[in-house]
Amino acid sequence: MTTNKSTIEEMNGDNAAAAPSERVAAVPMIEIKGLAKQFGSFHALKGIDLTIAKGTVFGFVGPNGAGKSTTMSILATLMAPTSGYAKVDGIDVTKQPHEVRKRIGYMPDFFGVYDQFKTVEYLHFYGASYGIPKAEREQLIPQLLELVNLSDKKDAYVDTLSRGMKQRLCLARCLVHDPELLILDEPASGLDPRARIEMREILRELKSMGKTIIISSHILPELAEMVDEIGVIEHGQMIAQGNVADIQNRMRVKRFLHIRFLDREDEAEGFLRDRPYVNRLLRDERGIQVHFGGQDEEQSELLHDLIGAGFKLVSYSEAQTNLEDVFLEITKGGDGAQ
Ligand SMILES: Nc1ncnc2c1ncn2[C@@H]1O[C@H](COP(=O)(O)OP(=O)(O)OP(=O)(O)O)[C@@H](O)[C@H]1O
């Protein structure tokens, strides 16, 4: 009998908690508890809790000044919290910053690139600073350039690259030491739509490689397409966290229902006007649009009541709200700075 990992797991049977390999797998990539940061008397972070599982692409959204960059700088070991803790792969960012740095690639919101380098030299410079031997770098750097679509710019001077290319180069720089976690602060800011799509494609690829990614952005609908979960931060507090659909469901206070009737539309309008949660009615050539304040259950009751009252419905549909609507609803369009 061998005493390898599978044997240990078999011996433990269903007791998954006891299997060493599963214990390791259960360590979240990011664990933040009670994280607070004060700048003088200003409370930029007011006790944030956040857990992100390995392999997740997490979108961090919030208005200007909400505390996204502060949180990311702490995770990147560049700033110490006032209280609370942040761990990366179980390692405390304040107590063992060097261990954490090996595991993370950080792209700040404002970054400088050394203009006097050629693209390929720039990556060699960073690779060497991580102690990667030259022979290894020679293999790795063409792959990185390929990943970020800069192969044809390998001999171009960095100062001749467009903003989008510089952003992608900066992303490649974050990847030289093959980190497990990418901390990307507004990687798509200032990019034109095409460059944003390219950035999104690269991030998709990184996700498929199993990286955990935390990404902040103001471009919310785009973020929704590529993230598994979002966290919404405002005034230094996490006000919502979960998968995109859940957050939309939970936070949505207003729905737009489109109802088309076969006939008796005037009567139906009067009936709807008296129903609970109906805030506003609009009529157009497609029927009646209802601004509805209820949730799934109340919405289903409304449909039930309409049919019960003998109205003949041709269609009953809910207009999709997007992440932008949700974000504005949650943060009420406010500025996070106090
Ligand atoms: N070094 C500092 N000294 C004083 N105040 C600071 C410092 N860094 C950040 N702040 C303040 O802390 C708050 C949070 O800033 P942070 O940069 O984390 O916000 P953000 O959510 O990243 O905003 P943005 O989307 O505009 O980048 C802001 O009110 C900011 O002015």
How would you describe this protein?
There is one protein chain. This protein has 338 residues and is an alpha/beta fold. The chain has 2 domains: 226 residues, 3-Layer(aba) Sandwich (Rossmann fold), CATH 3.40.50; 68 residues, 2-Layer Sandwich (Alpha-Beta Plaits), CATH 3.30.70.920. The chain has 13 helices and 14 strands. The strands form 3 sheets. It has a 6-stranded mixed beta sheet with strand order 6-7-8-3-9-10, with helices on both faces. A hairpin with a 2-residue loop joins strand 4 and strand 5. Helix 5 crosses helix 6. The N and C termini lie far apart (65 Å). 32% of the residues are buried. The N terminus and C terminus are likely disordered. It binds adenosine-5'-triphosphate. The site of adenosine-5'-triphosphate has 14 residues, from strand 2 and helix 3. Adenosine-5'-triphosphate binds next to strand 2 and helix 3. GO terms for molecular function: ATP binding. InterPro entries: AAA+_ATPase, ABC_transporter-like_ATP-bd, P-loop_NTPase. Belongs to the ABC transporter superfamily.
